[in-house]
Design brief:
This protein has 527 residues and is an all-alpha fold. Among the domains are: 148 residues, Serine Threonine Protein Phosphatase 5, Tetratricopeptide repeat (Alpha Horseshoe); 111 residues, Tetratricopeptide repeat domain (Serine Threonine Protein Phosphatase 5, Tetratricopeptide repeat), CATH 1.25.40.10. 76% of the residues lie in helices and 0% in strands. The longest helix is centred in the C-terminal third of the chain and has 17 residues. The two termini are 20 Å apart. 46% of the residues are buried.
Length: 527
């Protein structure tokens, strides 16, 4: 769901047009200019914005000193979604009349729709200094604040104009989301409860359900969904959304029952079969999961998602040969899909076809350079294929291109530590700097703690190693690698009983899938 609720502006624009168009010039400089302006007003009322624009341009040309004509023209341009042109005119008007509250409010609305939140905020704050009780501006600034993740300010502003907020489902949704982020779940739930006044619009309640889903408030989500009056037009969508909410709440049996009823009553959509498969997978019924996805492939061959999920389930089962076969078929069927080539590269890595993986990840990165997973997979595959220089170049590129994705630093460090085993001392020092840099940004990276713990063990700094490895265990308790390293650290410190316990955990987990067992997987999940 988009973060900008543009429809709220629709409640502001008509009022602005009336105010601007009805402003008769204080001294009509030219009857012809006024006639053009009057005709423009008629065209606006009739919805003919193109003709209104033409008339207002004529009026402004004939009477350049009358700023109301320019203001009206800016309004019409905004209605035509020509926001940049509209903003230019509004800024010209405000230079001549900086106290024009209506024009400044409309300029802020334009900037909001252009995602220029800081500029919108600046104009709204100027406006509210001039007119502190301007309720429409307080509402709009509340929406802008929510977009800028200033949830405390958003909640304060939106709640201060509750009458206006409650007239629009989008502003109610923004207020509820702000409350959730402020850990005020009851206030959020009460706010979403007010969506019932829009019961005739199932879309409004679906929006509220989405806000609850984002906050992992699945009980409220289901209540909202169940409050929508079913009809032939929305029954399938509501049924699916209820099943999805149950799935997110880990109510897999309930979700299965909901989906079976939905498929029986309305026929199965691709999304329904896909969710059905993941319920089976989470209930440990992998055979049924695969069978369901294969059925979906047969019925909906153009839906790439089912192919990708079938590969993922085969990987989880460690059925790599089957996964690779499906992955190859998927890239043939969807030759322009970066996701398909990413998954193919992943399977090829797991089957130690590193050169093939390099080709697959290269194609994924070529297809979509906005996906960090493609570049990270390419760098890792190159490292495994002993293409050291290429790997380093791509890790460095990833660090610069995706600075917030700390996996690049952690995985680059891991590859450097392997290189250091060949005697490259500088690689080890570089790896340590990368790991420390990653942890300086985020202390909850199990793979970084694990690598630093192993490095400290190697250097004989057992106490330091233990601190990192115990932290890694807290963050990735299902990692067999971490338990093995911990067992080693405890043994060196003479803590034999604890060492034995860690070895027992290691042996128990050693048969788990790599997705469950590796600290790197936990790092990915944390991200």
């Amino acid at each position: 769901m988009g973060r900008i609720f543009r429809r709220i502006v629709s409640g502001l624009i008509p009022a602005l047009i009336v105010v601007l168009v009805c402003c008769t010039p204080s001294s009509a400089q030219d009857d012809t200019a006024e006639a053009h302006a009057n005709r423009a007003a008629e065209f606006i009322q009739a919805g003919n914005l193109h003709q209104a624009e033409s008339e207002l341009r004529s009026a402004a040309l004939l009477a350049p000193s009358e700023i109301s004509y320019r203001a009206n023209l800016g309004t019409v341009l905004a209605r035509e979604k020509r926001f940049d042109e509209s903003n230019t005119i509004f800024n010209e008007v405000l230079k001549r009349d900086p106290g024009n509250v209506t024009v400044r409010r409309y300029l802020a609305a334009n900037l909001w729709q252009l995602h220029k939140y800081p500029e919108a905020k600046q104009n709204l704050e100027i406006l509210l200094k001039q007119a502190p009780q301007d309720r429409q501006s307080r509402l709009l600034l509340g929406m802008v604040s929510e977009n800028m993740h200033d949830y405390a300010r958003a909640a304060e502003l939106l709640a201060s104009v509750s009458d206006e907020t409650e007239q629009r489902p989008e502003s109610l949704a923004a207020l509820a989301r702000s409350y959730y982020h402020l850990n005020r779940a009851r206030d959020a739930q009460a706010t979403l409860g007010k969506m019932s006044r829009f019961s005739q619009s199932g879309n409004a309640i679906l929006l509220g359900a989405q806000i609850a889903d984002e906050a992992a408030d699945f009980s409220t989500e289901q209540q909202l969904l169940l409050s929508i009056a079913p009809n032939p037009g929305n029954q399938a969508l509501i049924g699916y959304r209820i099943a999805l909410a149950q799935f997110h709440a880990k109510q897999f049996e309930e979700s299965l029952r909901t989906l079976h009823r939905l498929i029986e009553q309305n026929g199965g959509s691709s999304e329904s079969y896909n969710l059905l498969a993941w319920n089976y997978q989470n209930l440990g019924q992998s055979g049924k999961a695969i069978q369901t996805l294969e059925q979906a492939l047969a019925q909906f061959p153009s839906d790439e998602t089912n192919y990708l999920d079938l590969i993922k389930i085969r990987i989880a089962q460690r059925s790599f040969s089957a996964a690779l076969s499906i992955a190859k078929e998927t890239t043939l069927s969807f030759p322009h899909s970066a996701r398909a080539f990413e998954l193919r590269g992943l399977v090829e890595e797991k089957t130690e076809r590193f050169r093939d993986a390099v080709e697959s990840y290269s194609q994924a990165w070529h297809l979509d350079r906005t996906r960090p997973d493609a570049l990270l997979g390419l760098a890792e595959a190159q490292s495994a294929a002993a293409l050291t220089q290429d790997s380093s170049t791509n890790f460095e590129t990833g660090i610069k291109t995706f600075p917030r994705d700390l996996r690049f630093k952690v995985q680059y460090a891991a590859s450097l530590l392997k290189l250091a085993e060949t005697g490259d001392a500088s690689a080890e020092a570089h790896a340590e700097r990368l790991l420390q840099s990653a942890l300086a940004t985020d202390r909850s990276l199990p793979a970084a703690h694990y690598e630093l713990g192993n490095l400290a063990l190697k250097r004989g700094r057992t106490t330091e190693a233990l601190e990192h490895l115990e932290q890694a265990e807290k963050l990735a308790p299902q990692s067999s690698q971490v338990h093995f390293a911990l067992a080693n650290a405890y043994r060196r410190l003479g803590r034999i009983d604890e060492s034995s316990e860690e070895m027992a955990l290691y042996e128990k987990l050693n048969g788990a899938t790599e997705a469950q067992a590796s600290p790197e997987a936990a790092t990915d999940k944390a991200k």
